[in-house]
Amino acid sequence: MSRFFNATIQENVPVHANHNLLTLSIPEGAPAPLPGQFFMLQVSRGSDPLLKRAFSIFRTTQQGVQLLYRIRGRGTEILRTMKEGAVLEMLGPLGNCYPNPPRDKMPLILAGGIGIASVFPLIEKFAGRSIVFYGARTKDDLLMKDKAEKLSKKLFISTDDGSAGSRGTIAAVLSSFLADPHSPIPDCHIYACGPHPLLRAVSEIAERHGVTAYVSMEEHMACGIGACLGCVVKTRSGYSSVCKEGPVFKSTEIVW
Amino acid sequence: MDIAVRIGSLELKNPVMTASGTFGYGEEYAEFMDLNKLGAVVVKGLSLTPKEGNPPPRIVETASGMLNAIGLQNIGIERFIQEKIPFLRTYDTKVIVNFFGDSVAEYVAAAERLSCEEGIHGLEMNISCPNKQKGWCIFGTDPRVAAEVVSAVRKATRLPLIVKLSPNVTDIALMARVAVDAGADALSAINTLTGMAIDIRTKRPKLANRTGGLSGPAIKPVALRMIYEIFSAVKVPIIGMGGIMNADDAIEFILAGSSAVAVGTANFINPLAASEILEGITAYMKTEKIDNIAHLTGVAHET
Predict the structure, then answer these.
(1) What domains are defined for chain A?
(2) Which residues face A20 on adjacent strands?
(3) Cβ-nearest to A239 among B23, B29, B73
């Protein structure tokens, strides 16, 4: 079964201001996505917009795959208007995945904003076992908060304006959690997705505490399969493609 | 129906190839497409030593096109020979290696090294890069410099030599004549058009490199006009490219004067684009009752 196929929209519904949940049925036999992988979607039939858009895989269900997306540009504006039954060209699942933590390590899962879409499969995978740190701009931008709460051992929330959880960035919450001498889990693995400055902060905090962290990076993409070399990030071994060698990198590999 | 084409001494089983830089080293697309269907695979541009490339952001989408400033990132000729050639040799398609250098000596050394390997059937010279020895002028935009580097490479290889022309010149026909006089067996045209995009929020160029090469459907009319002019100026075969998205586009390039076509940015949108374009060309020939593809080349020039 090819990783390039047509998918049919089953549902495309708003979940909050500027965020939609898209459910797509994919052909039988399509490879099952792993946590942290992504799909590329063609939102137009013509040449404008030209390139496919990359989306994290939020969930895989019996019905198909679900993508949780923020409407923030021309591509996602077009996607928002697409109705049930519409057919989209799709490429994927692409990229590597979040590696499993060693048996004795506690997963700490951190998301900033729409980064929740990428780490959500991990929250489901480690149901009842992980501690989740979730930050967003405001209370309204916290998506799937109840689900995350139900699936995690403990959920920490922060918002930039203090409208929910603690005020400030979620990196600060992670930092005080790790700094707390009474912290029940000294031995953990961090998995994070969010804006670049947040991931840089997470990387610094992890390094300070000697904790391994995996971060999911983002860059503009054209091909999605490592051919065009457009979506690179700087790593200790030179420029690496986010689409093929990533999107998940060990935080210490990235040259921040 | 005869769809084989000749590029100098190189015979391709059909006129559809891939454009350098858009198809990796072939293996990236082997999962989606049977590479045996291609007339030739043109691999990502190589230099003697590996190149790191430009800092990100390297690409930005524009209206019906994209700008790229990859900065010629590549694994270097030695690693290509060790790691990629064995894979490509398992396919029944021609392998054309795109290469470049930052001095005449580097071009020559690269051409010599590539010429002594089994499994490389042709060379495509990228002359759209800067000459570090001569104050960073672009080889492909100065006729004297272009003549010097092409004749030097011509002496260094017996493989079919294709020169890929830069469109960022006033007179493309002149550059075509210069390349042919210096020994090119064929010409590829066009490379990307230099362009720019600016972020109105940060008020800075969107690409870290500030400028980049524009490709995609946006450049097709410019590319076609240039192929048309080159065809009138020289006798060697032309490999036409620049925004080919489907078979109709490819046929336009052939009618303008191309003997073969290369599919570039379209690979990113549809990894099967090249093989679908070939199917479309043969379907067109059937409908138009054309039994030899060569009969289509340059037909748009007939009065």
Answers:
(1) 4-93 (2.40.30.10), 106-253 (3.40.50.80)
(2) A14, A69
(3) B73
Residue A80's nearest CA partner among A7, A12, A11 is A12
Domain positions in chain B: 5-53+71-199+214-301
Active site annotation includes B137:
no
Q: Which amino acid is at B200?
A: I
In terms of CATH, what superfamily is B5-53+71-199+214-301?
A: Aldolase class I (3.20.20.70)
Q: Tens-digit pLDDT profile for chain A (256 aa)?
A: 789 999 999 999 999 889 999 999 998 888 889 999 999 999 998 899 999 999 999 999 888 999 999 999 999 999 999 999 999 999 999 999 999 888 878 999 999 999 999 999 999 999 999 999 999 999 999 999 999 999 999 999 999 999 999 999 999 999 999 998 877 666 889 999 999 999 999 999 999 999 999 999 999 999 999 999 999 999 999 999 999 999 999 999 999 9
42-81 in A: which are within 8 Å (CB) of B? 42, 47-52
Cβ B61–A51 below 8 Å, yes or no? yes
CB-based contact A232 B29, cutoff 8 Å: no
Q: Is the ipTM of this complex over 0.90?
A: yes
CA distances from B238 to A240, B97, B232 (A): 35, 17, 11
CB A91, CB A225: distance < 8 Å: yes
Instruction: Give the contacts of A79 (CB within 8 A, at least 6 positions apart).
Output: A12, A20, A22, A41, A43, A53, A69, A71
Residue of B22, B28, B32, B61 best to disrupt the A interface, most CBs of A under 10 A: B61
Closest CA to B191 of B255, B262, B253: B262
Closest Cα in chain A to B27: A227
Out of A50, A228, A232, name the one closest to residue B22 (CB): A228
Find the residue in A nearest to B43 (Cα).
A227
Give A243 to chain B, closest Cα distance, Å: 12
